[in-house]
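To whoever is on call:

I kicked off a structure prediction for a single chain this morning and the downstream step that reads the tokens threw a length-mismatch warning. I double-checked the sequence; it's 183 residues and nothing unusual in it as far as I can see. Pasting both halves so you can look.
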Amino acid sequence: MQARARSAVRYASTPGLVGAGIVLCFLLAIASCNPFAPAIETGEDGDHGILGDQRTVEGVFQNFWYAYTFKDTTIYGQLLHRNFVFTYRDFDKLVDVSWGRDEDMLITDRMFKNATNLNLVWNNIVGLSGDSLTTDVTRSFNLVVTFNPTDVTRVDGRASFRLVRENPELPWQIERWRDESNF
């Protein structure tokens, strides 16, 4: 065993391997390329990054998908307007329940932390009306929330959104979201 260890040390210290290691380190330093901290994808070369252009309605939904898929509250928070209101129907009590942006961020953060996997699929847009500053979008969706292998929740339905912005150059934000799902 000692002979094998000495042989490994002797092999590792050969000039060819040491020189190759130095050259490799030098090339990495010159290239200023850190493979563990790659540059952020901007999508400026016509190659669209994983995030959408939130100045488009489709970009809002792409970023929503990204936020859920990667459990990213930073991206999710950028989707919500300061006056955001979420509403759903409590079928047991036969009342609508609503809450604002701060509470929604807390609830979403807890869901992101407790779920092992979120799979959101946006389906067809079934309603779209508005102008360049305010638009209402109704879209069907499927959501599977996996908390553990024996606790999986499936939600299917529609969501109605009011998207707003102050001018056409700014990103859309969700001001109102009404969940019309089966949950």
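Update from on-call: the warning came from a stale cache, not from the record. Cleared it. Sanity check on the structure: The two ends are 64 Å apart (CA to CA).
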